[in-house]
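Workshop exercise sheet. Pairs work together: one partner reads the sequence aloud, the other fills in the structure field after running the prediction. Swap roles for the next sheet.
Pair: D.N. / O.F.
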Amino acid sequence: MSGGENSWLRSGSDGTTLSLHIQPGAKKTEIVGLHGEALKIRLAAPPVDGKANEALLSFLAATLGVARSQITLVSGQTGRAKRVRIAILDTETIAARLLQASGAE
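Structure field:
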């Protein structure tokens, strides 16, 4: 992941919104890098019955060190392009923690 302007992160009055591209059914759950103007995340969960969405939100909560209740799926319930809102962290903290989790320097 490059240290660019983080176009996949948007700060707002109600929290920070992440633009994500999700690949469900992967071998393991991991942050891959950028996919256009979205952060790409592979999920081990299958895309059925909301399992991938729940796995995504739980993965983000664990990676960012916040309670699951602080993360909301804003849009993209049935698609690969998703928007997720994190209520309590600023964009710099989110970018740093996700960058560290991706293994990028």
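Discussion prompt: The domain at 9-102 is CATH 3.30.1200.10 (Conserved Hypothetical Protein Mth637; Chain: A;). What would you look at next?
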